[in-house]
Write a structure and sequence with these properties.
heterodimer; A: about 600 residues; alpha/beta; Ubiquitin-like (UB roll); Rossmann fold; five-stranded mixed beta sheet; four-stranded parallel beta sheet; globular; B: about 350 residues; de novo design (two linked rop proteins); 13 helices; about 15% strand
Chain lengths: ~600, ~350
């Protein structure tokens, strides 16, 4: 293909045809601010902040919507450009009521960044959106109309990407606002993709930072008043302080490959050890890895799958149930599919359940003194954690859920630079995990992990000899729908992986063509979850997913969940104490909202 | 001679305001590939002080329908289905919808009426906003390219022309075309109305022939009551432009500030809200002008922003009336206008 030659600010650049000025500039390290642009969606060109001057054009042009042509001459820093850019930034800032001091987005807000960088005047206009409403969706997501800059990304995420259509613009002009459409029969599944695509955090998770800070502050006081606690608790010491709160943190499979991005590390960098170190530094007594929970979930789910395959009368296909956005989707919009959902709980609920039963017993701690914070890539997990069905002995197993973004904010607020921390190991015995567990963070991971163990279990006592399969490449990658027929100990199992809830319709229409279906509400699975760092684009999703595959591959000889002895011990203990129903399985109900 | 050559020979230009050569538009749609094509008649007429389309619909509904059918027949070929729409504003639908439906039925033509939503307003007349509206999306303009001729309604090649254009097309097809235009004359004058006159008439002549030349000092807004350019009474020897409206203002009755508020108030209400300069800019312009001592520097900075970075023609045209009024009337030395804000505006020395 012939390359085009274009000039930006007097310098020549070679580029492929079909690209926009913004893309070429970005690729070559020329900074053009852009707020409404997101690679997940077609160009909208409504913020006009990326306006540049192109020779031969009468007016300024939006660089996001201008395709390069040969010999184009672009200028990004002329007085004309600066004047228009600053005016548009000023206008946007005037409609965005600044709640910066408490905003979890303040360290990374591109609007605040641009306003500071270009020295935009901020005092000439009065706030005009003071009376706008904050719409809260359960305890998970909120849209704050007073911060909205009308870029439309949330509506596109909800409609175009997720096919949920819960958000829309009402009214027009300066009176328009984003409103939920629950009165029109649409339902929110709490996936948080609106938040993931919002440039200014008007759509965001309902923050639990304050609650977590309270826990951490209380811990600090406790440490100060109990001299022996000052160094932090060492393993086995907790029992001596059993009347005191024990703080436990656990983090999800996908968080380790994303949070580094918020600290200027490369996309998809594995930061497990650093997260552990950071959480300890924040003041958590114990840090567990939800990968352990993922191994537990895999085994329970694989057993359930095998049962449903063996029993001719069982409801098939079986759907995975790890994704709470998907569970919400079924309960709210397709309750007829409830019998198809695996009754297995999700990894973070499993692990938390094990912490508050098995581990509490072992450590001789009263479960009510354990406060557990789960670090998740997801907004819907906030709602899953408070579901009454998930309680053990009347108590929530997870006390607070923070998203990846919230943890980033908390670390930055406490001046903890993740990139510079020395990696630490998570706590035993709930820390070791198989390669399969790591896969849970991406689309197809639950499927692959469950198949590995199911195949292994189906082979029975001869497992060592039958060489059960490890790699299921059919389930991998970022395609919207992945289907295959796999062999599990001689029987054919038809599988499908739905990557993003927007792709679910054709699968629901053809249910009886499948035996086992994984659904993740977010594009890419948890690595593209609604609580993940911004930006999240397909390019970034792919790199995050790649790292998960590497983590799995590096676990040579330990790539099946069933090989996790710690997990088997926990399951044995739970079964012996007849806690299966309380800790391992759950129920679903048709809901209206 | 085929119809396209006839239209080209007649040198017909779109009568909605942009004056794009009709034959070129039709050719582009004909050449574009698509199993379905659409013809849309824009009868939304939302610009203040422009009433010509209503006048034509009232008097010659049959001609308009005929014109649309000519376009449909032109696009029809083997393997291409063509459908027509009349995108009509609610008031006209009420008044003339029945007649149009009648004519359509008589000819058994594949044309349906689409009534513009009540809240649609001015922006709904912009051609790509029409497409969004019919498709059930928010009524706002689309990015160009692609142009509607390539990807219009439901992504298919689409001809969108104004009511008057289709009227002329029908006349061309039946061989009775005369180079006339429909002029809406109104404002501070004695005989407001819509008049049909030769296309080469100057503004001055039209005002005079229609017996509307006033005895007092006045200025004229040409081509639309919001987006039209302002000319003083000595500048009227050109032919009208845009939507061919002539609105007369009695100079002594309007202060600069009242006029600005009048125009900006309209744009503020009618902005679709899509882009920042128009949504926020018109809001802040209105806010800026509505105080005792306006910050005129800020006022003109906002206008510059609109003309530099607006998404569509609505935002781009916000400064037209204001700037031309300042240049041709307020600061015109010969006219010697007295106005409280004149000196402040003059001292700013901004470029028009």
């Amino acid at each position: 293909m012939k390359k085009l030659k274009i000039k930006i600010n007097g310098k020549d650049y070679l580029t492929d045809p079909g690209q926009t000025v913004l893309e070429v500039a970005k690729k070559n390290g020329i900074d053009i601010p852009a707020l409404c642009f997101h690679p997940d969606f077609p160009v909208k060109g409504n913020c006009r902040v990326c306006s540049v001057e192109v020779k031969g054009y009468k007016r300024l042009v939006p660089s996001c919507a201008t395709t390069v042509c040969d010999c184009m001459e672009v200028r990004t820093e002329t007085e004309r450009v600066k004047k228009a850019r600053n005016m548009n930034l000023e206008l946007i800032f005037a409609e965005h009521i600044e709640k910066c001091p408490n905003c979890i987005w303040r360290f990374q807000c591109p609007l605040l960044g641009a306003v500071k960088k270009y020295g935009v005047k901020l005092t000439r206009f009065r706030d005009r959106k003071g009376a706008r409403k904050i719409y809260k969706f359960r305890n998970a997501v909120e849209i704050d109309g007073s911060q909205c800059i009308d870029c439309k990304n949330c509506v596109e995420a909800c409609a175009m990407q997720q096919n949920i259509h819960y958000l829309k613009f009402a009214g027009k002009g300066s009176r328009q606002e984003i409103v939920p459409r629950q009165n029109e029969g649409f339902k929110c599944i709490l996936c948080g993709q609106c938040a993931l695509h919002c440039p200014v955090s008007a759509a965001q998770e309902q923050s639990e930072i304050a609650a977590v800070e309270k826990l951490l502050a209380r811990k600090k006081v406790n440490r100060a008043t109990h001299p022996r606690l000052r160094q932090g608790l060492r393993r086995g010491e907790a029992a001596a302080y059993k009347d005191k709160e024990i703080l436990v943190a656990q983090f999800a499979p996908s968080v380790r490959v994303t949070i580094g991005e918020d600290f200027k590390m490369p996309y998809g960098k594995d930061t497990s050890g650093k997260i552990t170190a950071a959480l300890r530094q924040l003041g958590f007594d114990y840090v567990f890895d939800i990968n352990f929970g993922a191994d537990l979930t895999t085994i329970i789910e694989a057993e359930e799958l095998l049962e449903r395959i063996k029993d001719k009368k069982a409801t098939r296909p079986m759907f995975t149930s790890c994704c709470p956005g998907w569970v919400n989707y079924v309960e709210l919009l397709h309750p007829e599919l409830i019998p198809h959902l695996a009754t297995t709980r999700s990894p973070h609920i499993h692990l938390a359940g094990a912490v508050k039963t098995f581990w509490a017993k072992k450590m001789k701690i009263d479960p009510k003194n354990i406060k557990l914070v789960s670090i998740m890539p997801c907004t819907a997990k906030k709602y899953e954690a408070v579901r009454p069905e998930m309680k053990v002995d009347g108590r929530q197993v997870i006390d607070q859920v923070l998203t990846t973004r919230e943890l980033s904010f908390l670390l930055k607020k406490n001046n903890i630079d993740l990139a510079r921390l020395k990696p630490r190991e998570t706590d035993d015995p709930l820390g070791r995990f198989s390669g399969a567990a790591a896969l849970f963070g991406g689309s197809g991971g639950v499927m692959e992990s469950a198949l590995r163990t199911a195949d292994f279990l189906a082979c029975g006592p001869k497992a060592k000899l039958c060489r059960a399969k490890i790699d299921y490449n059919e389930a991998r990658g970022l395609a919207g729908i992945k289907t295959a027929v796999v062999d599990i100990a001689g029987s054919k199992v038809r599988i499908a992986v739905v990557n993003g809830i927007g792709n679910i319709d054709p699968i629901i229409a053809d249910l009886n063509k499948f035996d086992y279906i994984e659904v993740m509400a977010c594009r890419g699975g948890c690595i593209g979850g609604g609580g993940q760092p911004i930006p999240t684009t397909d390019e970034i999703r792919a790199q995050r997913q790649q790292t998960l595959y590497q983590i799995d591959f590096a676990k040579k000889g330990f790539r099946r969940s069933y090989e996790n002895k710690g997990v088997l011990e926990v399951i044995d203990w739970i079964k012996k104490n007849k806690l299966e129903k309380k800790v391992l399985f759950t129920k679903y109900h048709k809901r209206n909202y | 001679m085929d119809i396209l050559s006839k239209i080209r020979a007649a040198d017909l230009k779109g009568c909605g305001g942009a004056a794009y050569p009709t034959a070129d538009k039709w050719q582009a749609v004909k050449d574009a590939f698509g199993p379905r094509k659409y013809v849309i008649c824009n009868a939304s007429e939302g610009e203040p002080m422009v009433f010509k389309d209503g006048y034509i619909l009232k008097n010659w509904p049959a001609k308009v329908v005929d014109g649309i059918i000519v376009a449909i027949d032109f696009l029809k070929e083997h393997g291409v289905e063509v459908e027509g729409y009349i995108f009509i504003n609610p008031e006209y639908a009420k008044k003339f919808g029945r007649f149009l439906a009648n004519e359509i039925q008589k000819r058994n033509a594949p044309i349906s009426l689409y009534v513009k939503p009540e809240e649609g307003g001015y922006i709904c007349g912009e051609e790509s906003a029409i497409l969004n509206t019919i498709e059930g999306n928010k009524s706002e303009p689309r990015l160009r390219p692609p142009f509607p001729t390539q990807k219009g309604l439901w992504g298919e090649p689409t001809i969108i022309n104004n009511v008057e254009t289709f009227y002329h097309v029908a006349k061309i097809a039946e061989g009775t075309y005369e180079t006339v235009r429909f002029y809406s004359v109104n404002g501070d004058c004695k005989n407001p109305g819509v008049y049909k006159h030769r296309a080469d008439r100057t503004i001055k002549e039209i005002i005079a022939i229609t017996k509307n030349w006033p005895k007092f000092d006045f200025f004229v807004q040409v081509g639309g009551g919001s987006a039209g350019e302002i000319l003083n009474q000595h500048q009227l020897s050109a032919t009208p432009t845009g939507a061919m409206s002539l609105t007369l203002y009695r100079t002594s009755e309007w202060t600069a500030r009242e006029l600005f508020r009048h125009w900006i108030g309209f744009f503020l209400i009618e902005s679709c809200g899509q882009c920042v300069p128009c949504r926020e800019g018109t809001y802040r312009l209105y806010e800026t002008i509505n105080v005792k001592n306006p910050d005129w520097k800020l006022f003109f900075d906002l206008l510059d922003d609109l003309s530099e970075t607006s998404f569509c023609g609505l935002g781009l045209s916000v400064p037209t009336a204001i700037k031309s009024y300042i240049k041709n009337v307020l600061l015109n030395a010969e006219l010697n206008i007295k106005d409280a804000d004149k000196e402040k505006i003059k001292n700013l020395n901004f470029k028009i």
